[in-house]
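Sequence only, no structure available. Ideas?
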Amino acid sequence: MIYPTLFFKHLRVGRAIRDYPLYDVPNKQEERTLDEARVQENFDYFMQVRFDRLAFLQGWLRENFGVRLPLNGDGLLALTAWINAYGGGLIGDFPRIAIIFASYQPIWVGEYIGCNVMVDIGIFLGEYLIAKRPQLHWEIYRGYLDEDRELTGPNLKRPQLGGFPRGWGVDVFGLGYGAVVEARQMAHVGHDPLVGDRDGLIKHCKAKLHLANVPDDGTPFVVGDYSNEPI
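Reply:
I predicted one. Tokens follow.
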């Protein structure tokens, strides 16, 4: 059961999202299962459409919810507030949502159309971080040789944000997915209080902004020391 205070907000999202554009990659299966040529095709598609999709998200939020989404701290705060209030209405209670998001199957239309917004939230987060740290850039995620689980995970060969020191990267698709799924979970009456963080996106972005400025010379640093990082 959805909290009554959120129920009508979710209905509003359902009406607004009906004609949301499809993230129409040419190869609709998990990138980790694709050969290199088709991985590159999907990445090239992403690079070609990302600015158009970002502009659509910004216009969609402004026209339907009165939310402005500039690529700065105000935009990040506005997006976080909107996801907390409305994000749970982007998806239903699908038991296979992680597989659907990773594989593009079933096609992201109808009841699955909210997956397209997850991608666009990720695009916003990536372009926001690039605006704050111009040394960052989009790349294909290849995994890390010292983390075996990452070499088989669902994010392998998808777009990520690179340019961080020490070979780090940011799975911004995963951030968009996680924020929406957590909003859905937190929208249920009696949800597990340990699930979800209403400031999660802000904390993630602060952490990535902090990591982007870490010296790349092996100098020791405190990983969690990002609480005062300005957005």
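The chain has a mean pLDDT of 90.
Hope that gets you unstuck.
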